[in-house]
Structures are given as structure tokens and as C-alpha cells.
Amino acid sequence: MKKPVIIVGAGLSGLRAASLLHTKGVECVVLEARRRIGGRVISETIGGTDLAKVDLGPTWFWPDYEPLITRLVKELGLQTFLQHTEGALLYEQSENAVPQRHVLPEGAVQRSFRLHGGVESLIDAVHDTLPPGTVQMNTAVKAIRMNNDGDITVEADEQGGKKEWKAEAVILAMPPRLVARHLSFSPSLPEDLIQSMLEMPTWMAGQAKAIAIYDRPFWRKDGLSGQVTSWAGPLQEIHDASPDKGAGALFGFFGIPAATRRELGEDKIMKLVLEQLKRLFGEQAGSPLSLLYKDWSDDPHTAVREDAEPLMNFPEYGPLGHAGLWEQNILFAGTETAAENGGHLEGALQSAERAVSRLLENQNK
């Protein structure tokens, strides 16, 4: 290829696509609007705990049925540990009712694993396979143009100025809704494709996550797994987020919609979270060493206005439709476009492999 492949988005899918192209000797440039790599992966260091990390984005993977990430983690030499699920689950039906304890039969919970150093360690390891300078951050792609001769130009805002790249092809490794709302194309993408992108919910975009950090996982001595299902809220689903040793951590997903969280404000939400944790795990749970909060619906590089609507069911993800005049020049990656495991890290990797495979096939025609 005479010109580089431009990849838009430095999340797991974009970085993996770049790594795969690099192994094939294909030059590529990854453009990322954020000041960091990783996309929806954020791993925060727990202060005073030998630099253990917890995840404010994706957390687990399942080796029993996710072969791509399992193989990649092994190839990169990353260390893993089993997600803690031993002990009783709690069911909270209301604020005034005593939580019910249930112990699931052995084997009822599918084994999931976490990464030492959080999922950020996977992002960093994939990034390290790329030549220096491959990823350019603070670079927000705004437009993609193709002239009558088929020459492609990618235009981006870069630290207050504009910059252009000539491209052999473009891989859009970002949520489809962001593509539809923030990128312009000349010639235009087909209307039915744009509509299908707007109808495809961005994974996690309407959700928020809270993590309470403690000096140890004290709930385990009471025979609790840390898992909770709640109809009282504000957290509707809680899990043990502790590192494999030392500190303790509990994280939860919210049951209240994005608009309500915005009205309440972070201070009020955190107060409600602590009240709930005390109801469930006792007074000690109300005094964490720190309390982390990430509302993905407020992240402009993740969510658009359509994502404020709560999801009633798991979205139907998969490859997007025909791109019209762009069919040979634009490829879609990202977990929302995966044929299987959409929304998971596995889906992000699967979509990257599919996009690279199709790109190479197109170039060899």
C-alpha cells in the first residue's frame, strides 16, 4: 500500500487492528480524540495498596468461551486471577427489607477472570506492539472525503489546528452512533446505513459505575461473595472488585437512568451509594478509603443524546450494512459491530480481526 491505513479510535479494537496490520507490514496511523488510549477502558490505581488497580470500564473476560482475548492475554504474557464469587449472594427487594442471602450451587456461576493491573494492562501491552508515533492523541477526526479518482483524505482537529492525512483506507474503530453524529463524509454514506448506526446503542454509554475501596474485603469473613441484585438501588448490580490480594473493593452498576443521575448530581448519588452499601454490608461499608465514580453518559467521546435512553434489553449487535460508494474504503470495527460477543472485550477483538481481514482482501483484489 502506498498510503497508510487510518484507524479512527485507540480503544482495544483500534489498537488491535493497528497491531495486526503492523505484523503484515502495512503502515497505519491511529487517530484518537482523547488525551489517552483505551477508549472505554479506564483502570484507576488504588492509593496505598502497592499500585493495584480497579476498572471503571470493562472488567472481566470468560476463558471458557472467549478464545480471542484468552489467546491474546497469553501471547502478551499478562497475569490474570479468578473473579471472586465464593459465598452468598444478597437480594435486596426494598430499603426497609432485610436482604436475603442465597448460595448458588457449585458451577452455577461461569468462571470469569480479571487482569493484574486492570484491563488497562491489556491496552498498554497491545499499544507496545506498535512502532513509536503510530497513535496520535488529542486528534479528533471530523471529516472523511473521497474524490472522483478514489483518493481518500481524513481531516481532524489537532490541538487547536487542522491536519489532513491521505489514506489508503479507513477503519472506524469507534461506536457507530459517534460516527453518525460526529463525522461527515463526502460523498455521503447511505441514509439507511446512517439510520442503522443511530439505532445501535453504544455499550456502557448510558451506564455509570461506582467503586468503593476498603483496606480489605471484610464481607468475605461474613460468608458473602460481594454480589448483590437490588430492586431498591441506586446500584442494581454489585460485585466484588477486590484485587487478588490486599485491598477490598465493591463496584456496582446503576439502576437509575442517565437523566435522573444528572438531576441528582454526583454528591447526592454518592451519598445514596454509601447508604445502600451500609444496608447491605454493615456500617464498615459506609466508610470506604475512597469512592470512585464514572458516568459514561457524560463522556462526549462515548455517548450521544440517543444513549440517554435506558436499555430495556441486551442490544442486538453485529456488522453494519452496505456502505455504498465507500464499501471498499471504509471498514467498521468496535465491539458494537462484532457478529458475536458484542459489548465485550472479545467482541472488540473479533471486530478488529474481521476489519483487517476484509481490508487485506480488498487490497488484494
Describe how the helices and strands are arranged.
Blueprint: E1 5-8, H1 12-23, E2 28-31, E3 43-45, E4 53-55, H2 67-75, E5 80-82, E6 88-92, E7 100-102, E8 113-115, H3 120-127, E9 135-136, E10 139-146, E11 152-158, E12 161-167, E13 169-173, H4 176-182, E14 184-186, H5 191-198, E15 208-214, E16 224-230, E17 235-240, E18 248-254, H6 258-264, H7 266-281, E19 290-295, E20 330-333, H8 345-363
Parallel strand pairs: 1-2, 1-13, 2-9, 6-16, 10-14, 13-20
Antiparallel strand pairs: 3-4, 5-8, 6-7, 10-11, 11-12, 15-18, 15-19, 16-17, 17-18
Structure commentary:
The chain is of the alpha/beta class and 365 residues long. Helix content is 24%, strand content 27%. It has a seven-stranded mixed beta sheet with strand order 7-6-16-17-18-15-19, with helices on one face. Strands 9-2-1-13-20 form a five-stranded parallel beta sheet, with helices on one face. Strand 3 and strand 4 form a beta hairpin. The longest helix has 19 residues, at 345-363. The mean pLDDT is 94.
